[in-house]
């Protein structure tokens, strides 16, 4: 835009109108008010930049106006305006103000001047009007002798939109082009996967290096633009990177976000109240299989084509699909007194079923959680008798009838691997697992720490049992991995001989006094150590206490 020309043009335009208004005595009051209102619109409007995407913030029920003119000397020229609502539906319109006629010829009568006043007030016309939340583009021809006013209004709540005006329609587009058929096709549905395909954008063929496809997956609804999707996720309490294109910067991630990069594909998973929202950018591939979905769940899929240079995007027509129901888990038979070790892959196999037919009225189930998080659900003849999350060693004593059929369903509650040992037996008085104390925590005494020794304590039981203590030197960056990856079902046979400290027997009939302590000596100053205690029962099956990390004093 030539600003000097515009500011010269506008005062002349207003001066002509003002003179005309003062010279007309017989004009009606309504005509004068209408015309003054139009002038007021110009005084309280902003200039809309040409060739640049403008973000506009709207307050509820307060209209906002922008206007533009063409360069001087261009009689007729094409222009286009694209408006993208980023949240709720809005109303917007385009009004055109044409130049008023010149001064009346000498000798004209008052009636001629009144006619001119009516003409002046009727030079405003609405050429476009829209209400909704879709991305809408208006294309038209503009005259240099006309001013264009854009008016935007949000009646639901405060929101923001983006507006793109261009008068150069020959040198390319800010927004990537969509194909003639912009629909997303669902070409495959599984229990935990959905495969999508879409037609290539013409922009990909022309600018392959600066264009990429990005996919948004959520359980709520489809989005008509990328900024609408980002706004919706932010409203759930999330902070997002400005766009999917900028999501390539890992430092922009929030604590509630998980970034996965594999096979040149970037995935960002946002944990929001309405479920997971996944963002996946896959370059210029126009097919994608979405993994790790939940069975029997409806998902909504939106594909956006993003220009990495301008950060502008265009949305394909979104689609949705429902994953298949979870298949019946494989049934394994439990036998009396035989321990079964079940390993669940949190990503592929989340369920595992065991079946047991009672040969006695009383049945005892024992579960030893080895790793991860598992929920157990027990039914007898189809009716639920127990359901809870496992922790450590857990016993269930159930009473029924002979030949009752028990079904035990194990479900992993996290994506990492989980494992558990299961035992079914009618003889609780001959347990394979040891009697456990109230807590499997190991306590350390800070005041008793020295540069060369550490004192720890743990609870025992009323049954004489064997306890073995092991130590392992670790580094700061190994703490989390050691604590998370520990297999609580593994015994000392998996440890190096040099890590063994001692083994001892003890018990106390008074549980309040069933506590033992040990001072481990020969340690190095200012060093981290991981301590483990193993409890052995009558059958020799070990139970591992929760690992404890202690650091010796640096100076004594």
Automatic annotation (TrEMBL):
Full protein name: Protein NDNF
According to its UniProt entry, the protein's GO biological process terms are: nervous system development
Where primarily located? secreted
Q: Gene name?
A: Ndnf_1
Can you name one GO molecular function term for this protein? heparin binding
Taxonomy-wise, where does this protein's organism fall, top ranks first?
A: Eukaryota, Metazoa, Chordata, Craniata, Vertebrata
Alphabetized Pfam families for the sequence: NDNF, NDNF_C, NDNF_N
**Keyword Cell division found:** no
Give a GO cellular-component term. Answer: extracellular region
Where is this chain's protein located in or outside the cell?
A: Secreted
* InterPro entries (UniProt xref): FN3_dom, FN3_sf, Ig-like_fold, NDNF, NDNF_C, NDNF_Fn(III)_1, NDNF_N
The source organism is Hypocryptadius cinnamomeus
Q: Which SMART domains match?
A: FN3
